[in-house]
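Progress against Task 2.4 (sequence-to-structure conversion) is shown through the following example record, which the project officer requested during the mid-term review.
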Amino acid sequence: MPKTPIVGARIAKPNGINAPILGDMMKNTPPIRYQRKITGMSAILLPMLSTTEIDWPGFRDHVARTADAGLVPAVNMDTGYGNLIDQSLRLAVLKETQDVCAGRPFIAGAFVGDQSGSAFDFDAYKSRMDEILSHEGKPVIFQSFGLTEQSADGVLEAYTQIGAHSGGFYAFELGKMFAPFGAIYDLDVYEKLIQIPECLGAKHSSLNRQLEWQRLAIRDAVRPEFMVLTGNDLAIDMVMYGSDYLLGLSTFAPAEFAKRDAMWESGDNGFYQLNDLLQYLGFLTFRSPVPAYKHNAAQFLKARGWIETSLTFPGSPTRPDSDVALLEEILERLQDEQTTHEDRHARCDRANGHQPTPDPIHLGDHETRRCSTIHG
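Structure tokens generated for the chain above:
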């Protein structure tokens, strides 16, 4: 696929030579969309008891806490080793997720493994979609060599076939830093892709703000209800500009992400502090090699007491044990932020003549009453 040119302002040089006009930056940066409701979708880590045994209680609990926080669980994604697990395990994950969600929405990766030079294998995609649909989920269509190595028309025809069979799916643009079969589509292809009626949204994982901003502009002009799902774990504030999200980072802290989202919707200035902490976690865990973030996720969830071990699925890259101390520090800061936030709102309640109430996010309630506003 041809590469999409990056559009945006250059950084001004100290001596002013060739300095860009500020208007260029303003033109290419979308407005911040204050107090919008954010839709969060969170990839679920598949935890291990050993290199051959899944921690099913840990998995079920994590699906439940994600759904209870108000996020949409996403299983069999990269975070759940969707490219490494076999069919029996893939189906077991879908069954457990269906049982836990009990009618609540969830999404699942439809991954087709192939090699460079392979033809697009619609039958394989159809089989993956049928597995997901039969368990009441909606498919997220992973790219494959057979899909992305086609012409632009071939790519669009493939997604049209997928839409006609699925009745509703999410597309997925994946940068090559995540997988060799990934591709970031040019803007003409993207504009036509989002006009496929069954395509409900598309995750964008280029780790490039400007490429995602371009997609938001196309979405707003062509199909405003279409969901641009940021997959940029290094810029989780893309939600401020109109993106929703489907992230691996949120598996570390689903309730904290949900709390951050509710803060944005209600106009609470605490959004920024919590977003900064979560971004700090993202910068640490999504460093090169990026796929090793899954080991950091296991280390973090083990430190929280949510899973039994920090083991990863065989074939997945790992991080050094020295990361654990850094992750524990971030966890402590997140817990301190929770306490500070509750104390601040208790003081606010008293100042307004109300009895202090527990933080509703802790109770899974996304309707919040706040004292301060983001833009007031």
